Amino acid sequence: MSSGGLGMMNCGDCLKWLGMDASTSVITLLDDPADLVRLSGVSWSLCRFVIVNKFCKSLCSRFCPDTLNFLLVAEVSNTSKSAEVGFSSALEWESLEREHRAYALLCHLIVSPEGKRDCIHRAVCASSTDNYPDESNENTLESGDLVDQRPSYWSSGGQYDPGVPESLTYRLTANLCVMREIKIQPFKAFFQPDHPIYLAKFVRFRMDHSRLREGTDDYEEQQLASDDYYKWTYVSP
Questions:
Q1: pTM more than 0.85
Q2: In whole angstroms, what is the distance from residue 54 CA to residue 15 CA?
Q3: Contact indicator for 33, 59 with CB cutoff of 8 Å
Q4: Cα diameter, the chain
């Protein structure tokens, strides 16, 4: 028998030959979630080892430490596995598999160049607008200073008390988005004397999901846009 054939016969038993500690040290050197997914497909023992030790979750936390704050991974599915597996109950194994799939996909989206794009789908509404629609918050999504040969900016209706906050609401492109940065561009009014620059005294970001039913149209969503219709679970300093 050739040495190549012997290698193929024993490739699934690398855990046995290396041992748990050495295998862990080698696997933690991987920096691509695709490699972890491929590794879990080599054999049942490697699959179990990768999933139980949560290597995908660990790799994901290296690129995005905030994932360590996740409390639960939920997955919508119409089917449920019920077969028993040797080392754990079916329920526990399903939970581990679900977590493995979720973190593998999330990590891929974080490191993949194809996944880097604008997370904002559209502007929903603003707490006030001075001159709608010419000065609406739709303008904040424009990269240039002009739209249809007119200045592109959002302007609030204004308040007597400068401490009263204004808000802009946007819908994201997906239910799960990974944000690496948020860009804010103050507006330079080149059409006014001395070209003043308008910017906020402070900015706060709030994120989570809408309580509105599926299928709510754009107009209805704009009419219902208030704190009563949104569940804010993250508020920045």
A1: no
A2: 16
A3: yes
A4: 88
